[in-house]
Structures are given as structure tokens and as C-alpha cells.
Amino acid sequence: MPALDYPPPLQRLIAQVRTLPGLGPRSAERVVLWLLQGGGRVEPLVDALQHLADRVEACGECGFFLERGQDCVLCRGPKRNPRLVCVVEQAADVLRLERSGAFQGLYHVLGGKLSPLDNVTPEDLRIEPLLARVKTRQVEEVILAVGSDVEGEATAGYLNDLLRAEGVAVSRLAQGLPAGGGLDHADELTLYQALSGRRRL
Amino acid sequence: MPALDYPPPLQRLIAQVRTLPGLGPRSAERVVLWLLQGGGRVEPLVDALQHLADRVEACGECGFFLERGQDCVLCRGPKRNPRLVCVVEQAADVLRLERSGAFQGLYHVLGGKLSPLDNVTPEDLRIEPLLARVKTRQVEEVILAVGSDVEGEATAGYLNDLLRAEGVAVSRLAQGLPAGGGLDHADELTLYQALSGRRRL
Prior knowledge:
- 2 copies of one chain form a homodimer.
- Chain A is α/β, with parallel strands linked by helices and 201 residues long.
- Helices cover 41% and strands 13% of the residues of chain A.
- Chain A starts with 7 loop residues before the first helix and ends in a 5-residue tail after the last helix.
- Chains A and B meet through helix 1, helix 2, helix 3, strand 2 and helix 4 of A and helix 1, helix 2, helix 3, strand 2 and helix 4 of B.
């Protein structure tokens, strides 16, 4: 006699939920059992998922999300400086930078970072559209706002070579102490970079 | 000018995903952005969710899940002792006990445990169906296999009073050292209970 298990449709959903980032087998099981409790929990989720699939798409230029049929508020917004393009890994990074209020140019979402270990190659990222933008628009400076981890550094180096060949200025986010952080919480590499990147007052 | 945010359908799905157990605002955002990447990730999830809603329901007697139109393998299974009913908090607990192979009676899923702080009252649990089973079937013993935390203890105490009034024997899972665990890893309460529940050899 086979061991008891959940009915197949339930097993299938658990397997689907497990593919989501950050969800392991136990948390996927907990989510699915929760959905089955109380009644009426599956339908709003299905509605929201379908609404997303029907209505949201990525902007062909910057890669941020927009509602189908509407203009991209970032690419077509007024008061945006089209000479300046800020390259980020994820769409969520656009929101973070916007909230900082420090940038008024255009964005370009790569969709990830180079990572041979995870099989992420240049073809998987939105690098071609970036080069096309630089070639056809009058872009003066590209700011590489990718992370300062190993993959981010590799991605920045790769893009720098390509962009320099197009004759555009390339810059990178400053590295140093985070705001409000004392030296006691900073790791050695951060201190090294804060020191070597010191500014005259 | 309002701060930039995701398009409304995307915000709506993030809000929906946040209601799932174990998912906070950041993990919900990560899951939804992941769904939008690469294309074709939303549809299989929607399919599996709808398949679940269409095909799976809870057994009216034990509360475990079954495919609509099929018999409950637990309630209608052969070689099951109908005089013995094991009460558990969640459907997942049924699988855990079945895998242990220690039980051949019937199950009863409560759907949670009493927890005034989380607004879980006796009316929210499947207590009425349990009393109905005890009254109409020839149940001899009810095993309360609920957790040994505060809410589990409260639930066991509450059920014990109700079930005793029906003239049925009530028991509780043994507490003590977990299998393979030394005394060095046991907390004081576990040691206290292992000592006071000691068995003669």
C-alpha cells in the first residue's frame, strides 16, 4: 500500500509554489494548506494573477513595468534628462532610487547580473537594448547602479568595456559608509573603499 | 507629484501575496517580480490554483483533503479502527502521523488551535463535527494529538472537558525526550515532563 499523500491537484500546487523564490518545501506546503482553509482564498489570488498577466508588461525601452497601452512614466515623463541613463539590476531598484530623489534621468533595467554559476550570461540580460539606446539617442553618461557584490562588479566591468567603445561616459555608484552607520558596523572592505574614495572637505 | 510605484495590478498582486503565511512585504515583492520575469511563469501557477479550487475539497467527516467525488481514503479505508479517533490541528499533521506508522484509527482535523490572541475561538475549529462523530459513532477513545505549546494545551483542556461529558476515553500524546536527542539539547520543561512521565522498565 503506498504511503498516504495529499490528492494530486494539491501536490501539483505545492510543487508550483516551491518554484517561487524564497519558498522551500515546508513553506510551500504551509501556503497551500492555508489557501484551502476557510474558503474563498484561492479566487482573489487567481484574479490578481490573471489581472497582472493581462494588464502589466515591461516597457520595451527601460524595462520597468507599465500597464498595457499606457505610456511609460519614466521614459515619457516630463522633466526627465534623456542624456543620463541609470542601469539597474531589477525593477525594484528603480523604485529605491526614485525614492531617494537623487536622480532625474532615464533608467535601464538589466533584469539581473552576470553570474556564470547561475547560468546568467550577457544574452540573458537586456544589454542589447541598452547599447541600442546609447547608439540611437544622445546619451552622454551611463551610471552603473548595480550591486557591489562579485557579480555586480563583473557586470559593471563588462558593461564598461562595451559602453566605452561607444564613446559614452560611464560611472559607478560611490561606495563607502552607509548613512547613519558607524565604523563599528562596517566590514573591512567597506572601510577600505570608504578610505580610498575619501573626499576633501 | 506622487512617488513612483508599480502599476496598480502589480501592487494588487503584491498585496495578495503578502496575505499568504510566511511572506512579508519584501518577499512578496520578490515573488511577484520573479513571476513577471522570463514570461510564462504566471499561467502554470494560475492553472494549478484553479485545478486545486475545482478538484480538491475537505472530507466532511475527518477534514483531510480529497478529490471531489472520491471516497476519503482515511475514513473509508479498510483496516482502519473506527473506535479510535486521533484529533490533530492541521491536515499536514495527518501525513506526519501516517508516516510514523503508529496509528491505524480515524483522524479528525481541527483546522487550528484555540488562540484568543489570534481571535481563534471554538467556533472557528471543527469541534461540533467532532462531538457529532463521538455521539453518533461507537468511538471509544479520542487521542488529542495537538501541540504541546500553550495554545495546544488550552485546546486539549477544552476538548477534554467536552469529550469526557460524552463518556468517551480521552488521551494525549506522550511528552518527553525526542528520539535521538540527548539531555544537553532538551529544555527544562521537556526534561521536567520526561522525568515526571518516566516509565518503569
